[in-house]
Amino acid sequence: MTPLQLAAWTWKIPRRGRGFWFSLAIDVLWPVVVLFVRLRVRGRHHVPGNGGVVLAFNHLSNADAVAAVVFALLSNRVPRVLAKASLWRLPLFGRVMRSGGHIPVERGTVKASEALKPAVEALRAGRCVMAFPEGTFTNDPDGWPMKGKSGVARMALEARVPVVPVAEWGTQDLLPRGSVLPRLLPRKRIEVVAGAPVDLSDLYDRELTAEVLDEATSRVMDAITTMLSGIRSAGSGSQGA
Questions:
Q1: What are the beta bridge partners of residue 38?
Q2: How many domains does the chain have?
Q3: What angle do CA 136, 18, 103 make, to 5 degrees?
Q4: Which domain holds residue 207?
């Protein structure tokens, strides 16, 4: 996607339901993506145009969330993001997160499971919920996804909605782990690729035991890994536009 094409999408992406502060954040960051990122997006047709859906991404960098939101908007969906609750306690970030109707997760506590209730409600109301099943950056030295946590599987099974696996690559070059400021120059290549929804329909009527949740989670993570393998084997993360 050329900068001109990406800039043109500024007027096409959905605005209704974004909230003032979330919308302002998008409008501020969109020109940065246009100017400093060589973005390639594929698989948007796998994202349903309406109804509840979970977009499940691998996690490499704090820049993942920006690339993921851009992907959702280019897919004509306004995402509700599952994110660490500490962001709500930061003055500016808190306004953005509350404005966008995003969903806080208290990591490492028993309250983490409580975040799934509003997420399931959002999905049942036809919303697009965006999540990172690993729960944190991958610790794999080569950047491959880790074993996922069960939250994405649980909310998808409870709401009976599709899970679209999405792989990102290149965000770790734009904002390496531990960095505060992005490395804007030279322009970084980021690729975001979605696959077909993961089939969990055979698990809908089963009790949500640890075994069932592990099976569903494995299917989701395997699909994300497959998508990422396709990006990396093609070498597209280091090629030009």
A1: 189
A2: 1
A3: 35
A4: 3-238
Residue 241 has pLDDT above 70, yes or no: no
Amino acid at 216: A
Burial (0-12, 13-18, 19+ Cβ within 10 Å), 79: buried
pTM value is 0.92
Residue type, 135: G
CA distance 152 to 212: 13
DSSP 10-30: GGTS--TTS-HHHHHHHHHHH
Percent of residues in the chain assigned helix, strand, coil, to nearest 5: 45, 15, 35
Distance CA 45, CA 24 (A): 27
Q: 141: exposed, middle or buried (C-beta count within 10 Å: 0-12, 13-18, 19+)?
A: exposed
- Which tokens is 179 given? 């960095």
User: If you write DSSP's letter for every residue of 96-144 in order, what string do you get?
Assistant: HHHHTT-EEE-TTSGGGGGGHHHHHHHHHTT-EEEE-TTSS----TT--
Residues 9-37 have a mean pLDDT of 93
Count how many residues are written for the chain: 241
Q: What's the CATH number where 234 sits?
A: 3.40.1130.10
Q: What is the pLDDT of residues 206-223, one digit of tens each?
A: 999 999 999 999 999 999
